[in-house]
Specification:
single chain, mainly alpha, Ferritin
Length: 90
């Protein structure tokens, strides 16, 4: 299940300048997984705060959140494939 996902990420990152081996982009993969974890954690904490009536202050500004740059959405909540492609091809 995850094997193809990691293979796709590896293929994309291997095309980046300065990534000449698997060791070069292993760090980048780790950071991406870490940011995804933080985004999920913040989503969970925001929901908990909403249920208890508390105020939640996110760690990151909206533009730096995983859900904003890695999985951009259209106004109707669907994945914005055009924006996602632009992000990958910066």
């Amino acid at each position: 299940m995850f094997e193809q996902t990691f293979k796709t990420l590896d293929d994309i990152m291997f095309q980046e300048p300065g990534c000449n081996s698997e060791l070069d982009y292993a760090e980048q993969s780790s950071w991406m997984l870490f940011f995804k974890y933080l985004d999920d954690l913040e989503t969970e904490r925001a929901l908990e705060a909403q249920m208890t009536g508390e105020v939640f202050k996110p760690l990151f500004e909206e533009q730096y959140r995983w859900s904003e740059w890695a999985t951009p959405k259209t106004n109707d909540g669907k994945l914005d494939l055009d924006k996602a492609r632009l992000t990958l091809n910066y």
